[in-house]
């Protein structure tokens, strides 16, 4: 199925309107379109021509989803449920299935408090190198972790930044190697600009030939070589222990990636307290995070509700039921963002 697919079931006009409404929020609504194409096809194939939804019709759609993993099934069910609830609000009788059990591979992110972030940054700043270790990356850590927290970029994106990608004249950082393959631009706030300038001042003192050339990596070890995400991950676990923040082990977190989640939640909370229109602000945050669609960013609202309930009160007055109702145990695709 493709964008050229023509919806032909009894639900066609409602699907198109739903996708249009989603399109006002979603950068790329293809994820919804594909699921609803499957729904449309299942209705035609099974001869369901009436404008209502029964358990039998949902089962027919589920049977058409062949060879998909539990995580994909979970995603498609949440998307269809949003559409069915939209239909219900229009007065069309619909059976709305329950959300499937969350796949075990899904991860509920850890959101650091503002106080925890202060302790983490203080511990990073006080870190000292013991002994002579020319390959150490400690010089990068204060700047790297502030960059992650203040921009929400992924660790892989940060480690792929080249010197030439940082423009101090326009206060912008250009990300050329991203998860979804799309380049994006990240603004530098004044504090981050100062931190980056200080880091470069001392980094460029290292006796490494060509360390400041545009094509060289921004973050390097003491011998001028780039490093993998394993290095900051190991360092971060040490910092968490120093701060008394329990690390639950592999794939349990808190993780370096949780700084990205923390950035998103703290940004939404700041928007709410400053009176920013979240209906307009959410797509902006989505673009800044590099999400393929606002659907991914929507989940942060569920996460934010646990810490700042007023955010949901503000946005619900304008978005109605556009956002999925998900309990706190089914909150977020941690690895997918």
TrEMBL record:
<dbReference type="InterPro" id="IPR002104">
    <property type="entry name" value="Integrase_catalytic"/>
</dbReference>
<dbReference type="Pfam" id="PF00589">
    <property type="entry name" value="Phage_integrase"/>
</dbReference>
<feature type="domain" description="Tyr recombinase">
    <location>
        <begin position="107"/>
        <end position="313"/>
    </location>
</feature>
<keyword id="KW-0233">DNA recombination</keyword>
<protein>
    <recommendedName>
        <fullName>Tyr recombinase domain-containing protein</fullName>
    </recommendedName>
</protein>
<comment type="similarity">
    <text>Belongs to the 'phage' integrase family.</text>
</comment>
<dbReference type="GO" id="GO:0006310">
    <property type="term" value="P:DNA recombination"/>
</dbReference>
<dbReference type="InterPro" id="IPR011010">
    <property type="entry name" value="DNA_brk_join_enz"/>
</dbReference>
<dbReference type="GO" id="GO:0003677">
    <property type="term" value="F:DNA binding"/>
</dbReference>
<keyword id="KW-0238">DNA-binding</keyword>
<dbReference type="InterPro" id="IPR050090">
    <property type="entry name" value="Tyrosine_recombinase_XerCD"/>
</dbReference>
<dbReference type="InterPro" id="IPR013762">
    <property type="entry name" value="Integrase-like_cat_sf"/>
</dbReference>
<dbReference type="GO" id="GO:0015074">
    <property type="term" value="P:DNA integration"/>
</dbReference>
């Amino acid at each position: 199925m493709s964008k050229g697919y023509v919806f032909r079931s009894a639900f066609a006009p409602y699907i198109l309107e739903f996708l249009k409404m989603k399109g006002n929020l979603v950068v790329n609504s293809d994820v919804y379109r594909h699921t609803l194409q499957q729904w449309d096809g299942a209705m035609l194939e099974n001869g369901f021509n009436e404008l209502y939804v029964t358990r039998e019709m949902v089962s027919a759609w589920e049977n058409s989803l062949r060879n998909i993993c539990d995580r994909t099934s979970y995603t498609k069910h949440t998307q269809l449920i949003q559409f069915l609830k939209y239909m219900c609000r229009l007065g069309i009788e619909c059976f709305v299935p329950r959300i499937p059990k969350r796949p075990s591979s899904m991860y509920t992110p850890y959101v650091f408090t503002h106080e925890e972030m202060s302790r983490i940054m203080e511990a990073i700043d006080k870190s000292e190198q013991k002994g002579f270790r020319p390959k150490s990356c400690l010089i990068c850590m204060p700047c790297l972790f502030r960059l992650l927290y203040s921009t929400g970029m992924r660790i892989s994106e940060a480690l792929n930044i080249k010197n030439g990608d940082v423009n101090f004249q326009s206060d912008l950082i250009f990300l050329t190697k991203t998860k979804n393959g799309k380049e994006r631009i990240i603004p530098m706030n004044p504090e981050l600009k100062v931190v980056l300038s200080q880091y470069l001042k001392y980094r460029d003192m290292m006796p490494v030939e060509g360390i400041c050339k545009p094509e060289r990596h921004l973050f390097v070890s003491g011998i001028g070589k780039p490093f993998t995400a394993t290095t900051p991950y190991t360092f971060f676990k040490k910092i968490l222990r120093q701060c008394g923040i329990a690390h639950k082990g592999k794939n349990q977190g808190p993780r370096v990636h949780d700084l990205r989640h923390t950035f998103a939640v703290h940004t939404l909370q700041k928007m709410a307290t400053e009176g920013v229109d979240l209906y307009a602000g959410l797509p902006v945050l989505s673009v800044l995070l590099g999400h393929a669609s606002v659907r991914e960013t929507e989940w942060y609202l569920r996460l934010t509700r646990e810490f700042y309930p007023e955010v949901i009160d503000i946005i619900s007055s304008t978005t109605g039921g556009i956002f999925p109702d998900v309990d706190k145990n089914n909150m977020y695709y941690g690895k997918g963002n």
